[in-house]
Fold these 2 entries.
Entry 1:
Amino acid sequence: MRTILKALACVTLPFVCIGLGFAQAPGGEPTPRVLTPQLAAALPAPVPCDTKKGSCWKPTLGMEWQWQLSCDTAKTCTNLDVHVPFYVIDAVGNPASTVAAIHKRGEHAYCYVDIGSWEETRSDASKFPESVLGKRYIGWPHERWLDIRQLGILAPIMIARMKVCVEKGFDGVEFDNVQDWDNPTGIPITQQESTYYTAWMANQAHAMGLSASWENAPTIVAALQPYMEALIFESCYNYHFCQQSAPMVQAGKWVGGVEYKADFKDMRFCPTYAKDQMVGAFKKMALNSYRIPCGTAK
C-alpha cells in the first residue's frame, strides 16, 4: 500500500542457485543469507500453491471485493455487514473467528502482510535488528524501510507472519511495500532484487497453501505474474498506470484497485477500470470499511 511509481522493464529468468551458506525454506528453494546482484539476476522458479496445506483459493476476474486494513471501532476490524465474495484484511487485527465467519458465508479472505517496511506498532517489531532498518517511510512516521537484501534475517520473520495467516484459516496473503527501489529508503536496493524478494515470498506462501497477491509496483507486473494470483493497484487512474495491470488480466488473474482523491468520488475512474478489467472502488486512505464500489456507483 501507499507507494507510487516509476517505470523500468523487468524480465523473468530461470532460477539459478549460487553461493554458499543456504538454508532450506518452505518453498523448497534455498534461502540466501544476503541477496546479491548475481543471485537476483535470476528469479526463483515459481512454486505451485500446495492444496494439501490450504485452500489456495483465488478470486476470479471481475469479482467484487472489500479492502479493510483499519478498524471502524476497537472491536470491528472487519465490517461483516459489507457482503462481498472476497476480503483483504489485516492478518493480526482479525481473529480466526472473523475468517471463519467469512468462510461460513461462502466468502474468502486474504491476509495483509507488510514485507517491505518495519512497523513499530507490530508485536514482532523487536525482532528486526537495526542493521536491516532504513529511512523513515515518508508520510508514515512509525515505519521504516527494510533492507530486503538481508533475506537470512527477514525470511524467518516474514514466514512466521504467514504462518499466522495459515493458523487463522486465511485463503491467501497480500504483500505490501514491495516497491522500494524507487523510494528514499537509504538502502541501495535494485528493482531486480526487490522482484526476487517478492517472488521468493510468494513461493513460501504457496508452500504453506496460501495464494499470493501484492500491491502496486506496476513496472514488475509481468515478472511477478507467474508467482501471483491477484494484484491491487492504488490510485492508478490518478497517476495513469491502470493499463500496466495487463499481464495479470491477460493471464486470467484478478486485479482490483482503489482511488482516494476526493474529486473522484464522482466515480469518473470507473469506465477506465472497466476497460482494464479491474474491480474498482472509491475509499478513504485510512482503509476502514467505507467504500463506494464501481458496480453500485450512480
Entry 2:
Amino acid sequence: MNLLKEVLAHEVYPALGCTEPISCAYAAATAASYLGEPVEELLLRVDPGTYKNGAAVTVPHSGGVTGNLIAAAMGAVLARPDAKLELLGQITPEMLDQAKELYGDERCQYECLEGSGGFRVEVTVAGPGHRVCCVLQGGHTNVVSVEKDGCSMLDSRSRAAEANALAYRSPLKEATLVELLSLAARADADDREYLRRGIDMNLAMAERGEKMPGTACQLRRIHARGFLGDDLFYRAKLLVASAVDARMAGVSQPVMTSGGSGNQGIVAILTPYVVGREMGIDEDRILESIAAAHLVNAYCKCYVGELSVICGCAMAAGIAAAVAIVYQQDGDNDERITLAVSNVVGDLGGLICDGAKPGCAMKTITAVDTAIRSGLMALEGFGLSSADGVVGTTAEDSIRNLSRVTLEGMLSVDPTVLRILREKDARNRGL
C-alpha cells in the first residue's frame, strides 16, 4: 500500500464550499439520484461536528444562505453526485428556487445525531412512490449505505470497495512521522503535479479574498498603520487569511483540502509554500514538504478525529505545516521534527473548534504564526520539553497526549457549543 497515494486520493481533493455542508449536498444528491422522481420530503441527520461546522458558513450558489440544510436541499434538487464535493457548481437559478422552496417547507427536516462519534451524514429523500436513504461515514464522500424502499442499492463489489476505502488509516496510525516523511521524498511525477494543482487552487482562492472585508483586510489596515511589519509571518498570514475569508463567504471557487478540510488544506499547503519560496527552497523540495504536510495532517486526524473538539486548522494542520518547514531544510530529522511538534502542541493545545464560520480566518492566522515560529525554532534546536504540560518525549507521544486531552478531557465541549449555537439560532428566528 502506498500511503501517500491513499492519503492524496481520500483526504486531499478539491471542494467547492465548506466540506461539511457540501458533504450534506453530496449525500442528498446521491440519494435523489436513486429516487427516480422529484423530491417532496427530505430528512437530514448529522453528527455534532458536522452540525456545528454547518451552522454559520455560507453555501456557494445559495444566494448567501448559510447551513447544512440548504446545501442538502440544493443537492436533492440537483440529484447529480458525480462531481462529488464540487457538485454545487452545477446549480442553476431555477434549481436554487426549487431548493429554497423545499428548504422552507416543513417537510424538510434537520436533526443532530446526539452522541454520535465521528463523521456521519444521513439523508433520506422521498417522492410520491419511493424513499431513499444515503449514509456517509468516516469521510466526506465515503458512501457506506444507499437503501431504496428498504433494499440496498449497492452491489457486493461496491460495498466491499467502500468498506476498504479507509483501510489505509490503520497503517497510517501505526507509522512514525519520520517514516511518513520518507514517503514524501518518494512522491512520483503524478503526485507532484497534483500537489502543484493544490497550490494553484489555494493561491487562486487567496486572490479572490484580497479585496474582501474580513480578517485579511484588518491585517492590511494594521500593517498600514505601522503596527505590523512586512515580513515572512505577515505575508504568510495575509495569504492564508485571504483564502479563508473568501471560502467562508461562499465564493464559488474550489480549494484543495487536506484531511478532508478546505481550511486545513489552505494552512497545510500555503504556509510551507510561502516559507519555502521566501527561503529559496527548491520547488521539488517544497512539493515534497507539502506532501509531508498532508501525511502528517492525516496522521494527526487519526488520533484527534475527523471532526474534532479542537480546531483542526490550528492543531492538525498547524503541526503539519511546522513539520513541513523543518523538512524543507533538514529532511526527516527526528529530533527537530519532535521539537516542532512539541512547540505547536505546547502553544495551541486545547484551542476549541466552534464551527466553520468567517472567524476561522482568525484561528488560521494563529495557526500560521505558531507553525512558522515552531518550525524555525526547531531548526535552531529549540523546543518545549516533555516536562512542559502535555508535551511528550516524542512527536508521536505529543500527538497521542493531545488526543487524550481532546477525546477524554474535553467531552463536554461539543455539547456546550451545540447548545450555544442552537440558542443563538432560536433567538435569531424569534422562537
